[in-house]
Amino acid sequence: YLRDGAYMTERLDKLLSDSGLYSRSEARALVRAGRVSVDGAAITAPERKFSRECDIRVDGERLNCAKYRYFMLDKPEGYVCATEDSRLPTGLGLFPVGRLDRDTTGLLLLTNDGDYAHKVISPRSKVEKCYLAETEAPVTSEDAAAFAEGLTLADGTRCLPAGLEPLDGNYCLVRVMEGKYHQVKRMLASRGKPVTRLRRLSIGALSLPPASEPGELRELDESAKNLALTQL
Questions:
Q1: How many angstroms separate the CA atoms of 208 and 72, rounded?
Q2: How far, in Å, CA of 215 to CA of 53, rounded?
Q3: How far does the chain reach from its first CA to its final CA, in angstroms?
Q4: Which segments within the chain are labelled E, that is strand?
Q5: What are the residues whose beta carbons fall under 8 Å from the beta carbon of 32, sequence distance 6 or more?
Q6: Percent of the chain having pLDDT more than 90?
Q7: How far apart are CA 16 and CA 19, in angstroms?
Q8: What is the pTM of this model?
Q9: Would you call 168 a catalytic residue per the annotation?
Q10: Which of 2, 79, 148, 222 has an alpha carbon within 20 to 30 A of 10's alpha carbon?
Q11: Average pLDDT in the 24-51 region?
């Protein structure tokens, strides 16, 4: 946002629309109606320019006008990953960072920052994704050793070395640093342990809150979104 040591400025109506809550025409109408303030002063000219760092409010409620936005969704079962969702702020151009299968639940990042998304999903970043899996039969130490070596699937797909930690009963934790098609399910199936339930718990050092429920959506601040790029 800096240019020659000073914050860049943009039209107020554009900043309002960048919040994802209003179209440009709606933003202009709000400003002209005197419902918008910037740093405590009422503004009625939508063409006036301000920095995104300013305290911009509509009817007293502060808006997030940041260029890039980051959300954490606890994805419910039975939903596909898509670029549109009626529950999300409109106009932000959000897209999922990677994918979760229709029947896989858990942590899904949404953003409009392409560089950030690429860093999170690229195996070169070595960002670990942790899943809780339930399988038809308990995994063994031999399965864990095979994961650690790196599996080659039946179709020739090679998987990087991964972590597999047996838990009580038919549960286990799987840690991977890549996101090939149905990878966790295919890896466990290759060991004769088909997955019956799968939930992503964390990306890097960013984890779902313990009390998180499917469908919950949270916006991430700068420090929280950077946790997803932190190698454990």
A1: 8
A2: 31
A3: 30
A4: 2-3, 6-7, 10-11, 36-38, 41-43, 49-50, 56-58, 61-62, 70-75, 95-96, 104-111, 129-135, 163-166, 171-176, 195-203, 206-207, 217-219
A5: 44, 46
A6: 73
A7: 5
A8: 0.83
A9: no
A10: 222
A11: 96
